[in-house]
Specification:
This protein is of the alpha+beta class. The chain is built from 8 helices and 6 strands; from the N terminus they run αβαβααβααβαββα. Strands 1, 2, 3, 4, 5 and 6 form a 6-stranded antiparallel β-sheet that branches. The protein is globular, with a radius of gyration of 19 Å. The two termini are about 25 Å apart. The relative contact order is 0.20.
């Protein structure tokens, strides 16, 4: 696949995940080997990637995930939204995953052990270093999956129940759970670029109120 096409057309996959097709764990391993080449803080590589294929554990994670969602929203809301709106479609897709997470064949949870002690003066630095050590590898993993006909999405809802999930999977308290990636084969693959705002709307040169970066032809 052309690199620019891969980078611009890799989408968050929820409803396009094939819940019936088996997942080849050898492929997941290949993708994780690629993920590990990502940059991370001072090259500590303090990773632990949990690949959850056991159906019972997936059901428990999905239960915690659903409880987290309902505690945040008070219940299901997609049915009350305009299904033709971007937000309505997004919430319908989100709630589909709430209902079907247990059926997604593999869950991947990247964990990372922070190495910078937090204090009141370095909160932004420590947080940025932590997330910056996780998500480049997550994105590598997702791109590698996509190039092999698999899909995933980054979801963080289970982190409201991180202690319960950590206990289920035996995660030490010194490790931070970055996100949850439901992994399955893709039923359909879009080769169109994902819709995004124009550079004119999101860039500024030499300061917040500076001019937009010139030369943008997207929109």
């Amino acid at each position: 696949m052309d690199i620019d096409q891969l980078l611009t057309s890799t989408r968050s996959a929820r409803k396009t995940l094939d819940l019936e097709a088996p997942v080849d764990l050898d492929v997941v391993a290949e993708c994780l080997r690629i993920a590990l080449h990502a940059a991370n803080g001072t090259n500590q590589q303090s990773w632990r990637w949990l690949v959850v294929a056991d159906a019972g554990k997936r059901r428990e994670i999905a239960s915690q995930y659903a409880a987290s969602y309902e505690s945040m929203t008070g219940g299901r809301i997609a049915a009350s939204l305009d299904t033709d709106s971007d937000f309505g479609r997004l919430m319908a897709s989100t709630e589909w995953l709430v209902d079907h997470l247990a059926d997604v064949p593999v869950h991947v949870i990247p964990c990372y052990q922070p190495y910078i002690p937090r204090n009141e003066t370095n909160e932004q630095f420590a947080t940025a270093t932590l997330y910056g050590s996780v998500f480049p590898a997550v994105w590598n993993f997702q791109l590698a999956l996509r190039s092999r006909g698999y899909g995933s999405c980054i979801t963080t809802l289970h982190l409201n129940r991180a202690a319960e999930v950590g206990e289920l999977l035996g995660i030490p308290e010194t490790y931070f759970q970055g996100c949850l990636l439901p992994v399955a084969r893709l039923r359909t693959v879009s080769l169109r670029p994902t819709p995004r705002k124009s550079l004119d709307d999101v860039t500024a040169v030499d300061g917040w109120h500076g001019p937009a970066l010139q030369g943008s032809t997207d929109g």
